[in-house]
Amino acid sequence: MEKKYMERLIGKYCKIVTKEPGEDRASVVTGVLEDVDYQDGFILVDSEQGLGCLSINTIIAIKPGHKKYHEKRNIKEDEKALIGIGTLIVFIAMILVAAVAASVIIQTSETLQQRAQSVGTQTIREVSSGMVIQDITGYTNANRTRVLYLAILVRPRAGSKDIDMRLVTTTLLYNNLSILSLNTTRVISVNTDNKTLFDTPLASGSNDTIFDNLTAFEFGIISIHDYDDSVIGTYGMNSGDRVYFILNLSAIIPETNGLPSRQEISGQIQPETGAPGVYDITAPAVYSKRIVDLW
Questions:
Q1: 20-55 pLDDT, tens per residue?
Q2: How confident is the model at residue 1 (pLDDT cuts 50, 70, 90)?
Q3: Residue % of the chain over a pLDDT of 70
Q4: Domain boundaries, the chain
Q5: Which helix (DSSP H) or strand (DSSP E) does residue 156 occupy?
Q6: Could you report the per-residue pLDDT of 106-117, keeping only the tens digit for each?
């Protein structure tokens, strides 16, 4: 072979076909052609078996091989280390990103869980708590022409939390919307002196009743069932309690000094939390007795 062909293949991965004198079959050697020594008649080949020499006189043909394999064979050990360190850095970065993302997801889920639990608790309290109106009774004047006082029987809803009566708001709609709050000096028990409901005195032996001096912006309470004295002691109504809300209609409706016959009033008793007790009543055409059942 001429020198120009051999030198052009130095450093390349080649397929070298050789045939020794006296042999019938040729053999093939693959490797990188490292050097050509024309003076001694040898070529230096780096093959998979290692570094070796072939006689130029035995070479029949040389064919360049794939460049990728050649580049792979020439990768230095330090270059492999650099690639490994880069891969490790990327791997650590992925772990850190995943850890940060997981932390954010966990924190967000905990926050959402707490909020959902809080909303659920409040919703359950809103649904289960509240007040129920069981009965409404009116007390007329001596001529039985109008209702002077209103007594609304109220109890807590089933499963309701304790209700602070001082935070209960009562509304009454007639010609105007009246908003009433509790007068804590008008909270008494119905059993005082064994009087009837509308004759209940403020204190034992007193001639003043709960209706005396009850303004248009206040309501009183007569407790008829309070096992633990929570209504009288702390103005709190709990499970099993029954109380009458007392309204002075003669003060709330001053233009007619009470509720005339055939007239309609409505309103609600709204606790701090939970469902209100709603009422809508129409006075009868004739008040046959001083005590009138309106509900």
A1: 887 888 888 888 888 888 888 888 888 888 888 888
A2: very low
A3: 89
A4: 3-73, 129-293
A5: strand 146-156
A6: 888 888 888 887
**Cβ–Cβ < 8 Å for 219, 247:** yes
Three-state DSSP state, 159: coil
Q: What percent of the chain has pLDDT over 90?
A: 32
Strand-strand pairing, 177-189 and 218-225? parallel
Q: 70-94 as b/e, with b when 16 or more CB fall inside 10 Å?
A: beeeeeeeeeeeeeeeeeeeeeeee
Q: For 145, phi and psi rounded to 5 degrees?
A: -110, -15
Q: What is the pTM of this model?
A: 0.58
Amino acid at residue number 277 = G
With 0-12 / 13-18 / 19 or more C-beta atoms within 10 angstroms meaning exposed / middle / buried, residue 200 is: buried
Beta bridge partners, 151, equal 137, 246
User: What CATH fold (topology level) applies to the domain 3-73?
Assistant: SH3 type barrels. (2.30.30)
In degrees, rounded to 5, the angle at the alpha carbon of residue 264 between the alpha carbons of residues 260 and 268 is 125
Decide: 170 and 267 in contact? Cβ < 8 Å: yes
* Token pair of 4 as six digits: 């120009």
71: pLDDT strictly greater than 60: no
Angle ∠(200,206,208) on CA atoms, nearest 5: 65
Tokens matching residue 21: 């004198």
Q: Are 253 and 171 contacting, i.e. CB atoms less than 8 angstroms apart?
A: no
